[in-house]
Write the structure tokens for this entry.
Amino acid sequence: MSFTTSFTVDQTPRQVFDAFNDVRGWWSEEVVHSGDEFEYHYEELHRCRMRITESVPGRKVSWLVLENHFDFTRDKTEWVGTTITFEIAEKDGKTEARFTHHGLVPEYECFDVCHKAWTFYVGTSLRELITTGEGQPNRRSVLPAELAG
């Protein structure tokens, strides 16, 4: 069972799509884009490189994890080859956003930490970026208070 989380907002599918693609606005200000790829890092704890493999405005975005490194797992290949999808649908006059990290499974050593992190970054930071215009991304190597400790 892969990790999935979803929420519903009053904003339009296009506004939700645009916010999700503003990765610096909800995940980390230190994300570096290069064409259809981007790199994320948080100190030496986590680094990854993603490729955007699908982008349908107002509907869906997919990423493929090309490289990944956690400094806290024995298996350094966790996440590599997994996909992340962000699907958007209109539902009862609102917009539903569904995030799935396909392949992020409970058997992974990182699962508990990753579950907690994605729940915060998607369920809190991205949602706030969509609804208020201000997310809670990592800022200059400072982890949000909700994830510290």
